[in-house]
Design brief:
Mean pLDDT: 76
Shape: rod-shaped
Number of helices: 6
Structural class: alpha+beta
Radius of gyration: 52 Å
Oligomer: single chain
Number of strands: 15
Number of domains: 3
Strand content: 15-25%
Strand order of the largest sheet: 1-10-14-12-11-15
Low-confidence stretches: 352-363
């Protein structure tokens, strides 16, 4: 009978395995602390943030001259297009000036017409007189010439005195001279009639042009522009944000009536405190998020103030001390819906923080 006893492998007790790990706990703790520190470095920097807000771009519609507001055609929240009528000022004074000027123009036309008619009648009257006198002088000249020829035949016989013959010849020469002058006078009068007809046609065409809608004289055009300026229109498309005045109020020149939130691509305006040393430059991509929550989105640094800006002392938590920093203008990389005036938080990317930690250059 053999005395060798078989050795059976005893099962490993779980408590023994855990006990060995417990003996090595300092290494695990350090590894855990290192992982936790790395995680905090990657995700724990979000609390250092740049506060900002979505830019509010407004257009203020105002009259160009003092007057009474009589009607407002829009309400807050209404979408308007460029050139749409927003409000109407009282145009009664300008309308009265336009009516007076138009009446003066009509009166001037009637006066010009009357002057042309009077001048034309005067010239034609003179023409008739000269024509009549020329005709009488021509007939009288014929008679005198015939009588002069008859007397010249009788002068040799002694029946006619030479003195009478001389008087007859003077009369004939005078009539011939008058007839020549009448001809020149009538020619000049006809030229005056032609010039007057041309001037009259020019004046008539001018007044006829005034009656057309596409032609307005400078003074009348100025009044029409003044009246049109009393109609307040939107210069850009947008949404009505505020109605500042009520119909019936008397407004001064340039006093705002309606505020419009213009349709422009959204921008985020942020302020980086002087104490936040961050290597940010134009063109960098940052993260942004609404303060009330929501998904983050990428924004690009469009502009960065070259100098530090000092805000008013009431913005500082310390009395009588200014808050200094740099102003950033950020634009979303992709299309995103942002409410104008809403508060935003801008985060520095992890890559930039790492560079800053290892001594990267501050741009």
């Amino acid at each position: 009978m053999s005395t060798h006893k078989p050795v059976l492998r005893a099962p490993r007790h779980p408590r023994i395995w855990w006990s060995r790990i417990i003996w090595r706990w300092p290494v695990l703790v350090w590894l855990g602390i290192a992982f936790f520190a790395w995680w905090l470095f990657q995700h724990g920097g979000d609390f250092i943030r740049i506060n900002g807000m979505v830019e509010v771009t407004t257009e203020s519609a105002a009259p160009l001259e003092t007057g009474r507001l009589i009607k407002i055609y829009v309400i807050p929240g209404q979408q308007v297009s460029s050139g749409q009528v927003l409000a109407q000022m009282d145009t009664s004074l300008v309308d009265e000036e336009i009516a007076v000027l138009e009446q003066e123009i009509r009166q001037d036309r009637a006066d010009d017409e009357r002057q042309f008619i009077i001048a034309e009648q005067r010239i034609r009257s003179e023409l008739r007189e000269y024509t009549l006198e020329e005709s009488e002088s021509t007939k009288e000249l014929v008679v005198y010439k015939q009588e002069l020829e008859r007397l010249e035949d009788l002068i040799d016989s002694g029946f006619v005195d030479a003195r009478d013959l001389g008087e007859m010849r003077v009369r004939v020469a005078s009539l011939e001279s008058n007839i020549s002058l009448y001809s020149d006078y009538m020619k000049n009068l006809h030229n005056e009639l032609d010039k007057m007809a041309a001037n009259r046609a020019e004046i008539i065409s001018y007044y006829e042009a005034l009656e057309r809608e596409d032609y307005v004289p400078s003074q009348l055009n100025l009044l029409h522009r003044r009246r049109d300026d009393l109609t307040i229109r939107a210069q850009q498309a947008g949404v009505i944000s505020r109605i500042r005045r009520e119909p019936g109020e008397v407004l001064q020149e340039g006093e705002r009536v309606v505020d419009i939130l213009t349709d422009r691509p959204p921008r985020v305006l942020a302020f980086m405190n002087e104490s936040d040393i961050r290597p940010v430059k134009v063109g960098d991509i940052l993260d942004a998020q609404s303060t009330v929550g929501g998904p983050r989105f990428k924004v690009r640094v469009q502009a960065l103030s070259p100098n530090f800006i000092a805000l008013e002392d009431r913005a500082s938590p310390i009395p009588d001390r200014l808050v200094r920093g740099r102003r950033l203008e950020l634009v979303p990389v992709e299309e995103v819906k942002l409410t104008p005036g809403s508060s935003m938080v801008v985060f520095l990317p992890a890559e930039t923080r790492i560079k800053s930690f290892w001594g990267g250059d501050d741009q």
